[in-house]
Amino acid sequence: DMVVVGIVFRHLSLKPSILKEYAKLGADMIPAPPQRDLVSYVKKPNSDGDAGGQKDSIFLEDESGRILLDFSGLEGEAAEKSKYLVSGMIVAIRGRPEKLGVLLVRDICRAGLPTRSAPCQEVPICDEDRFVCILSGLNFGNADVNPLAIDLVTEFIKTNLGDSKFQKWGSTIVRLIVAGKLINASENPDIQNLRELDATLVSIASSIPIDLVPGDGDPTNFLLPQQPINKCLLPSSSRFKTLRRAPNPYEAMIGGRRFLGTGGQNVEDFLRYVNDRRDSEGAEKILSVLEEMIRSRHLAPTAPDTLASYPFYESDPFIIDRCPDVFFAGSQPQFGTKVVEEGDRRVRIISVPDFYRTHQIVLVNLRNLNCELVDFVVDFEKV
Asked: From CA 212, how far away is CA 346, in angstroms rounded?
Protein backbone atom coordinates (compact mmCIF):
# COMPACT_ATOMS: atom_id res chain seq x y z
CA ASP A 1 0.00 0.00 0.00
CA MET A 2 0.93 3.65 -0.37
CA VAL A 3 -0.19 6.87 1.33
CA VAL A 4 -1.04 9.94 -0.73
CA VAL A 5 -1.74 13.37 0.75
CA GLY A 6 -3.62 15.99 -1.25
CA ILE A 7 -6.71 18.13 -1.73
CA VAL A 8 -10.05 16.50 -2.51
CA PHE A 9 -11.88 17.57 -5.65
CA ARG A 10 -15.35 16.21 -6.40
CA HIS A 11 -16.54 16.34 -9.98
CA LEU A 12 -20.34 16.41 -9.74
CA SER A 13 -22.64 16.61 -12.72
CA LEU A 14 -25.06 19.09 -11.12
CA LYS A 15 -22.41 21.36 -9.62
CA PRO A 16 -22.61 24.89 -11.04
CA SER A 17 -19.68 25.95 -13.24
CA ILE A 18 -18.82 29.56 -14.04
CA LEU A 19 -16.80 28.37 -17.06
CA LYS A 20 -19.81 26.59 -18.53
CA GLU A 21 -21.94 29.69 -18.04
CA TYR A 22 -19.33 31.88 -19.69
CA ALA A 23 -18.94 29.47 -22.61
CA LYS A 24 -22.70 29.57 -23.12
CA LEU A 25 -23.38 33.30 -22.69
CA GLY A 26 -19.99 34.94 -23.19
CA ALA A 27 -19.71 38.63 -22.36
CA ASP A 28 -23.49 38.90 -21.92
CA MET A 29 -23.30 36.78 -18.77
CA ILE A 30 -24.55 38.43 -15.59
CA PRO A 31 -23.99 37.13 -12.04
CA ALA A 32 -26.56 34.48 -11.16
CA PRO A 33 -28.58 34.87 -7.95
CA PRO A 34 -27.77 32.48 -5.11
CA GLN A 35 -29.41 29.07 -5.59
CA ARG A 36 -31.06 28.75 -2.20
CA ASP A 37 -33.54 26.19 -3.51
CA LEU A 38 -30.84 23.88 -4.91
CA VAL A 39 -31.05 20.65 -2.93
CA SER A 40 -27.99 18.70 -4.07
CA TYR A 41 -25.10 18.65 -6.52
CA VAL A 42 -25.35 14.85 -6.64
CA LYS A 43 -27.48 13.37 -9.40
CA LYS A 44 -30.06 10.94 -7.98
CA PRO A 45 -30.05 7.45 -9.48
CA ASN A 46 -33.11 6.17 -11.30
CA SER A 47 -35.00 3.00 -10.45
CA ASP A 48 -32.24 0.91 -12.08
CA GLY A 49 -29.59 2.56 -9.87
CA ASP A 50 -28.14 4.49 -12.81
CA ALA A 51 -27.55 8.20 -12.35
CA GLY A 52 -27.30 8.69 -16.12
CA GLY A 53 -25.01 11.06 -17.97
CA GLN A 54 -21.48 11.76 -16.80
CA LYS A 55 -20.45 9.85 -13.68
CA ASP A 56 -19.63 11.74 -10.50
CA SER A 57 -15.99 11.26 -9.49
CA ILE A 58 -13.66 12.09 -6.61
CA PHE A 59 -10.04 13.06 -7.21
CA LEU A 60 -7.06 13.75 -4.96
CA GLU A 61 -4.82 16.47 -6.36
CA ASP A 62 -1.97 18.88 -5.72
CA GLU A 63 0.16 21.16 -7.90
CA SER A 64 1.77 18.14 -9.60
CA GLY A 65 -1.42 16.46 -10.82
CA ARG A 66 -4.46 14.44 -9.76
CA ILE A 67 -5.46 10.82 -9.23
CA LEU A 68 -8.92 9.25 -9.39
CA LEU A 69 -10.09 7.57 -6.17
CA ASP A 70 -11.94 4.24 -6.17
CA PHE A 71 -13.93 3.59 -2.96
CA SER A 72 -15.48 0.28 -4.02
CA GLY A 73 -13.34 -1.69 -1.57
CA LEU A 74 -14.32 0.28 1.53
CA GLU A 75 -16.63 -1.09 4.21
CA GLY A 76 -17.99 0.03 7.58
CA GLU A 77 -16.66 3.22 9.12
CA ALA A 78 -14.24 3.92 6.26
CA ALA A 79 -17.08 3.73 3.73
CA GLU A 80 -19.12 6.14 5.84
CA LYS A 81 -16.16 8.56 5.94
CA SER A 82 -15.99 8.63 2.16
CA LYS A 83 -19.53 10.04 1.94
CA TYR A 84 -18.33 13.23 3.62
CA LEU A 85 -15.41 13.97 1.31
CA VAL A 86 -16.03 17.34 -0.33
CA SER A 87 -13.98 19.62 -2.53
CA GLY A 88 -11.32 21.51 -0.59
CA MET A 89 -10.59 18.99 2.15
CA ILE A 90 -6.97 18.02 2.77
CA VAL A 91 -6.74 14.31 3.58
CA ALA A 92 -4.33 11.39 3.52
CA ILE A 93 -5.46 8.36 1.52
CA ARG A 94 -4.06 4.86 2.03
CA GLY A 95 -4.47 2.48 -0.89
CA ARG A 96 -2.86 0.81 -3.85
CA PRO A 97 -2.71 1.70 -7.54
CA GLU A 98 -5.19 -0.38 -9.53
CA LYS A 99 -4.57 0.97 -13.01
CA LEU A 100 -3.13 4.06 -14.59
CA GLY A 101 -4.45 7.12 -12.75
CA VAL A 102 -6.68 5.19 -10.30
CA LEU A 103 -6.07 4.54 -6.58
CA LEU A 104 -8.06 1.84 -4.79
CA VAL A 105 -8.76 3.39 -1.39
CA ARG A 106 -8.32 1.32 1.79
CA ASP A 107 -8.56 4.03 4.45
CA ILE A 108 -8.99 7.80 4.89
CA CYS A 109 -7.17 9.95 7.43
CA ARG A 110 -8.03 13.52 8.36
CA ALA A 111 -5.93 16.04 10.26
CA GLY A 112 -7.85 15.52 13.51
CA LEU A 113 -8.94 18.10 16.06
CA PRO A 114 -6.84 21.28 16.16
CA THR A 115 -4.32 21.74 18.94
CA ARG A 116 -5.51 23.29 22.16
CA SER A 117 -4.37 26.88 22.62
CA ALA A 118 -3.05 28.13 25.94
CA PRO A 119 -5.88 28.80 28.41
CA CYS A 120 -7.03 32.37 28.77
CA GLN A 121 -5.33 33.79 31.84
CA GLU A 122 -7.40 36.97 32.04
CA VAL A 123 -10.79 35.23 32.22
CA PRO A 124 -10.79 31.92 34.14
CA ILE A 125 -13.40 29.26 33.38
CA CYS A 126 -16.58 29.73 35.43
CA ASP A 127 -16.85 27.60 38.55
CA GLU A 128 -20.65 28.03 38.71
CA ASP A 129 -23.49 27.78 36.21
CA ARG A 130 -23.35 30.61 33.68
CA PHE A 131 -24.97 30.28 30.28
CA VAL A 132 -24.41 31.60 26.77
CA CYS A 133 -27.65 31.78 24.81
CA ILE A 134 -27.42 31.04 21.06
CA LEU A 135 -30.37 32.21 18.99
CA SER A 136 -30.63 31.89 15.22
CA GLY A 137 -33.12 32.57 12.45
CA LEU A 138 -35.23 35.46 13.76
CA ASN A 139 -36.01 36.08 10.08
CA PHE A 140 -38.01 39.28 10.53
CA GLY A 141 -40.34 39.80 7.58
CA ASN A 142 -41.02 36.10 7.01
CA ALA A 143 -44.69 35.13 7.02
CA ASP A 144 -44.00 32.32 9.53
CA VAL A 145 -42.55 34.64 12.20
CA ASN A 146 -44.62 34.70 15.39
CA PRO A 147 -44.16 38.01 17.26
CA LEU A 148 -45.36 36.39 20.50
CA ALA A 149 -42.48 33.88 20.42
CA ILE A 150 -39.96 36.71 19.99
CA ASP A 151 -41.55 38.60 22.88
CA LEU A 152 -41.35 35.49 25.08
CA VAL A 153 -37.65 34.89 24.46
CA THR A 154 -36.93 38.58 25.01
CA GLU A 155 -38.70 38.58 28.35
CA PHE A 156 -36.98 35.31 29.35
CA ILE A 157 -33.54 36.81 28.75
CA LYS A 158 -34.57 39.95 30.67
CA THR A 159 -35.77 37.69 33.56
CA ASN A 160 -39.34 38.95 33.32
CA LEU A 161 -40.91 35.63 32.35
CA GLY A 162 -42.27 32.78 34.47
CA ASP A 163 -41.94 32.01 38.16
CA SER A 164 -38.97 32.79 40.39
CA LYS A 165 -37.15 29.56 39.40
CA PHE A 166 -37.50 30.35 35.70
CA GLN A 167 -36.41 33.94 36.26
CA LYS A 168 -33.36 32.78 38.19
CA TRP A 169 -32.46 30.54 35.25
CA GLY A 170 -32.71 33.51 32.89
CA SER A 171 -30.53 35.61 35.19
CA THR A 172 -27.61 33.19 34.66
CA ILE A 173 -27.37 34.10 30.94
CA VAL A 174 -24.24 36.20 30.47
CA ARG A 175 -24.17 36.56 26.66
CA LEU A 176 -26.55 36.29 23.71
CA ILE A 177 -25.26 35.19 20.29
CA VAL A 178 -27.67 35.91 17.44
CA ALA A 179 -26.32 33.77 14.61
CA GLY A 180 -27.55 34.28 11.06
CA LYS A 181 -30.74 34.84 9.10
CA LEU A 182 -31.66 38.03 10.93
CA ILE A 183 -34.19 39.23 8.35
CA ASN A 184 -36.07 37.57 5.52
CA ALA A 185 -33.98 37.16 2.36
CA SER A 186 -35.78 38.88 -0.49
CA GLU A 187 -35.03 40.71 -3.73
CA ASN A 188 -36.94 43.72 -2.39
CA PRO A 189 -36.04 43.97 1.32
CA ASP A 190 -38.38 45.95 3.54
CA ILE A 191 -36.82 48.55 5.85
CA GLN A 192 -39.50 47.64 8.38
CA ASN A 193 -37.78 44.28 8.94
CA LEU A 194 -34.62 46.08 10.05
CA ARG A 195 -36.61 48.35 12.32
CA GLU A 196 -38.18 45.35 14.06
CA LEU A 197 -34.76 43.74 14.46
CA ASP A 198 -33.35 46.99 15.82
CA ALA A 199 -36.17 47.34 18.36
CA THR A 200 -35.71 43.75 19.57
CA LEU A 201 -31.96 44.24 20.01
CA VAL A 202 -32.55 47.47 21.95
CA SER A 203 -34.80 45.61 24.38
CA ILE A 204 -32.21 42.90 25.03
CA ALA A 205 -29.02 45.00 24.88
CA SER A 206 -30.17 46.95 27.91
CA SER A 207 -29.87 43.70 29.92
CA ILE A 208 -26.97 41.58 28.59
CA PRO A 209 -24.19 41.75 25.94
CA ILE A 210 -25.15 40.66 22.40
CA ASP A 211 -22.98 39.35 19.58
CA LEU A 212 -24.78 39.88 16.26
CA VAL A 213 -23.59 37.53 13.50
CA PRO A 214 -24.93 37.92 9.92
CA GLY A 215 -25.99 35.02 7.72
CA ASP A 216 -27.58 34.17 4.42
CA GLY A 217 -29.67 37.01 3.02
CA ASP A 218 -28.70 39.55 5.68
CA PRO A 219 -27.78 43.15 4.69
CA THR A 220 -24.02 42.76 4.38
CA ASN A 221 -21.64 41.40 1.74
CA PHE A 222 -22.69 38.12 0.15
CA LEU A 223 -19.18 36.60 -0.04
CA LEU A 224 -17.70 34.90 3.00
CA PRO A 225 -16.27 36.05 5.31
CA GLN A 226 -19.21 38.37 5.88
CA GLN A 227 -18.50 41.72 7.47
CA PRO A 228 -20.45 42.98 10.50
CA ILE A 229 -23.79 44.64 9.84
CA ASN A 230 -23.31 48.36 9.35
CA LYS A 231 -24.34 50.36 12.40
CA CYS A 232 -26.32 52.74 10.16
CA LEU A 233 -28.82 49.93 9.58
CA LEU A 234 -29.37 49.52 13.34
CA PRO A 235 -29.29 53.13 14.57
CA SER A 236 -30.89 52.56 17.98
CA SER A 237 -29.26 49.33 19.16
CA SER A 238 -25.82 50.37 17.85
CA ARG A 239 -25.72 53.07 20.52
CA PHE A 240 -25.39 50.35 23.18
CA LYS A 241 -21.86 49.31 24.03
CA THR A 242 -23.26 45.88 24.88
CA LEU A 243 -24.02 45.22 21.19
CA ARG A 244 -21.09 43.79 19.28
CA ARG A 245 -21.61 43.56 15.52
CA ALA A 246 -19.51 40.51 14.68
CA PRO A 247 -18.40 38.99 11.36
CA ASN A 248 -19.35 35.59 9.96
CA PRO A 249 -17.52 33.25 10.73
CA TYR A 250 -17.61 34.21 14.39
CA GLU A 251 -15.02 33.58 17.11
CA ALA A 252 -14.94 34.84 20.68
CA MET A 253 -13.67 34.02 24.16
CA ILE A 254 -16.52 33.98 26.68
CA GLY A 255 -15.92 33.05 30.29
CA GLY A 256 -12.64 31.35 29.41
CA ARG A 257 -14.28 29.26 26.67
CA ARG A 258 -13.58 29.63 22.95
CA PHE A 259 -16.70 29.84 20.78
CA LEU A 260 -16.49 29.30 17.02
CA GLY A 261 -19.47 29.34 14.70
CA THR A 262 -21.10 30.45 11.48
CA GLY A 263 -24.44 31.63 10.15
CA GLY A 264 -24.93 28.20 8.55
CA GLN A 265 -24.05 28.73 4.88
CA ASN A 266 -21.04 26.39 5.13
CA VAL A 267 -23.16 23.50 6.41
CA GLU A 268 -25.87 24.07 3.81
CA ASP A 269 -23.38 23.93 0.95
CA PHE A 270 -21.54 20.93 2.45
CA LEU A 271 -24.81 18.97 2.55
CA ARG A 272 -25.26 19.48 -1.18
CA TYR A 273 -22.25 17.19 -1.71
CA VAL A 274 -23.52 14.41 0.54
CA ASN A 275 -25.16 11.41 -1.10
CA ASP A 276 -28.75 10.50 -0.20
CA ARG A 277 -29.79 13.90 1.12
CA ARG A 278 -33.33 12.74 1.82
CA ASP A 279 -32.62 12.77 5.57
CA SER A 280 -30.34 15.82 5.51
CA GLU A 281 -32.74 17.76 7.70
CA GLY A 282 -32.07 15.31 10.48
CA ALA A 283 -29.80 16.56 13.24
CA GLU A 284 -27.45 13.56 12.98
CA LYS A 285 -26.35 14.42 9.45
CA ILE A 286 -25.81 18.09 10.35
CA LEU A 287 -23.71 17.07 13.36
CA SER A 288 -21.71 14.71 11.15
CA VAL A 289 -20.95 17.61 8.81
CA LEU A 290 -19.82 19.80 11.72
CA GLU A 291 -17.66 16.96 13.03
CA GLU A 292 -16.05 16.52 9.60
CA MET A 293 -15.26 20.24 9.50
CA ILE A 294 -13.66 20.35 12.94
CA ARG A 295 -11.68 17.13 12.31
CA SER A 296 -10.54 18.50 8.94
CA ARG A 297 -9.67 21.81 10.61
CA HIS A 298 -11.58 23.87 8.05
CA LEU A 299 -14.73 25.97 8.42
CA ALA A 300 -15.68 26.12 4.75
CA PRO A 301 -13.88 23.50 2.63
CA THR A 302 -16.20 24.04 -0.35
CA ALA A 303 -15.30 27.75 -0.62
CA PRO A 304 -14.74 29.30 -3.11
CA ASP A 305 -15.64 26.38 -5.41
CA THR A 306 -19.39 26.30 -4.68
CA LEU A 307 -19.66 28.45 -1.56
CA ALA A 308 -19.22 32.10 -2.44
CA SER A 309 -16.18 33.58 -0.75
CA TYR A 310 -13.45 36.11 -1.34
CA PRO A 311 -10.62 34.46 -3.32
CA PHE A 312 -7.77 34.52 -0.80
CA TYR A 313 -4.51 33.26 -2.28
CA GLU A 314 -1.80 33.96 0.32
CA SER A 315 -3.61 32.59 3.39
CA ASP A 316 -6.87 30.85 4.19
CA PRO A 317 -8.98 32.57 6.91
CA PHE A 318 -11.23 29.53 7.26
CA ILE A 319 -8.53 27.23 8.64
CA ILE A 320 -9.21 26.25 12.26
CA ASP A 321 -5.82 26.55 13.93
CA ARG A 322 -7.02 26.58 17.55
CA CYS A 323 -9.39 24.04 19.04
CA PRO A 324 -12.65 25.68 20.16
CA ASP A 325 -14.66 24.59 23.16
CA VAL A 326 -17.95 25.18 21.32
CA PHE A 327 -18.45 24.85 17.56
CA PHE A 328 -21.90 25.75 16.20
CA ALA A 329 -23.81 26.47 13.02
CA GLY A 330 -26.92 28.63 12.94
CA SER A 331 -30.00 28.56 10.68
CA GLN A 332 -30.42 24.78 10.83
CA PRO A 333 -33.77 22.96 10.54
CA GLN A 334 -33.32 20.96 13.77
CA PHE A 335 -31.50 21.11 17.07
CA GLY A 336 -28.75 18.62 17.76
CA THR A 337 -25.60 18.40 19.83
CA LYS A 338 -22.77 15.99 20.59
CA VAL A 339 -19.29 16.03 22.09
CA VAL A 340 -16.27 15.27 19.91
CA GLU A 341 -13.19 14.10 21.80
CA GLU A 342 -9.63 13.34 20.79
CA GLY A 343 -6.82 13.10 23.31
CA ASP A 344 -7.12 15.97 25.76
CA ARG A 345 -9.31 17.98 23.37
CA ARG A 346 -13.07 18.13 23.75
CA VAL A 347 -15.44 20.11 21.53
CA ARG A 348 -19.17 20.63 21.97
CA ILE A 349 -20.74 20.86 18.49
CA ILE A 350 -24.24 22.30 18.13
CA SER A 351 -26.82 22.56 15.37
CA VAL A 352 -28.77 25.72 16.26
CA PRO A 353 -32.35 25.63 14.91
CA ASP A 354 -34.17 28.43 13.10
CA PHE A 355 -36.15 30.26 15.76
CA TYR A 356 -38.93 31.38 13.43
CA ARG A 357 -39.71 27.72 12.65
CA THR A 358 -39.04 25.98 15.96
CA HIS A 359 -39.28 28.72 18.66
CA GLN A 360 -36.22 27.15 20.28
CA ILE A 361 -33.04 28.62 21.72
CA VAL A 362 -29.87 26.88 22.93
CA LEU A 363 -28.15 27.48 26.28
CA VAL A 364 -24.51 26.44 26.75
CA ASN A 365 -23.20 26.10 30.30
CA LEU A 366 -19.76 27.70 30.55
CA ARG A 367 -18.86 25.59 33.57
CA ASN A 368 -19.16 22.13 32.01
CA LEU A 369 -20.23 22.80 28.37
CA ASN A 370 -23.53 21.02 28.90
CA CYS A 371 -26.18 22.10 26.40
CA GLU A 372 -29.86 22.75 27.08
CA LEU A 373 -32.74 23.43 24.70
CA VAL A 374 -35.47 25.91 25.65
CA ASP A 375 -38.72 25.64 23.70
CA PHE A 376 -41.19 28.54 23.75
CA VAL A 377 -44.67 27.15 23.05
CA VAL A 378 -46.95 29.67 21.36
CA ASP A 379 -49.45 27.20 19.90
CA PHE A 380 -51.51 26.52 23.00
CA GLU A 381 -53.35 23.64 21.34
CA LYS A 382 -50.09 21.64 21.69
CA VAL A 383 -49.80 22.26 25.44
From this structure: 26
